[in-house]
Amino acid sequence: MIAKRERGKMERRLTASLTHACEQAKPHLPGFCWLTHEVDYQRFPESLVVTWVFDTHPNLANALKGDAKRSIADLTAEALAEAGLDVGDV
Question: Taxonomically, which superkingdom (predicted)?
Fold first, then answer.
């Protein structure tokens, strides 16, 4: 469990790093709209979920193939590392 003060700091770091990942992804992933995250700090980091949102199911299906899927995973891992989380922690 993370103290209230630390939760605020972590939330700001996560938001900033995921916003950066979002901006990096937009020009390279057709149909990508935004990403968001949810977390229960009582069960952090296990509860952290990052959701990538696409405009259509076909664009989502294409993003889950090959290089695009790897790019999503890499950008997510980089954003979490930037926020101070080891992907192995999640």
Answer: Bacteria
